[in-house]
């Protein structure tokens, strides 16, 4: 049975304050959009709770995130830079107009070499999260999946990131009931 060995729930939108409190040294953080920062910080908390060094390669780990707004929060910021009469397109904003950038940043920071995926769903669904995580476990050599719901839209932060492991001795069973209770 697969088990949730660690999780972190983030609903606070004061992301830079949390970053500074954690004393993380990752200068790219300040260039990230809010969605990316939220997923990055929740992932950081999960890895820290497991006592893992971000510099240790993780060939046995895949990453699967979901949300319902994709990168719309940042897309709206970017849209204002290309309006007639206010035209000043920002490459710094444009780079974050894809939701999968958050999985890339988390994978880079934590040296995750398994599959990384970002799915868009109509809303939080423990069942869909289990299905997508199970698909990631089908990858060669994958025994862990960092997965969760990473939503940031209009200053509302709604993030749950979990480490799910095959054959873990301890943890919560990876079931809809347990995920819904955590969420």
Strand percentage lies at 15-25%
CATH architecture: 3-Layer(aba) Sandwich
SS-derived structural category = alpha/beta
Mean pLDDT level: 93
Radius of gyration: 16 Å
How many domains in all? 1
Rough outline: globular
* Percent helix: 25-40%
Oligomer: single chain
The parts where pLDDT drops under 50 for at least 5 residues are none
CA distance, first residue to last residue: 20 Å
Q: Count the helices. How many?
A: 7
The total of beta strands comes to 6
CATH topology: Peroxisomal Thiolase, Chain A, domain 1
> Can you say what the CATH homologous superfamily is?
Thiolase/Chalcone synthase
- SSE run: EHHEHHHEHEEEH
Please provide a brief summary of the model.
The chain is α/β, with parallel strands linked by helices and 183 residues long.
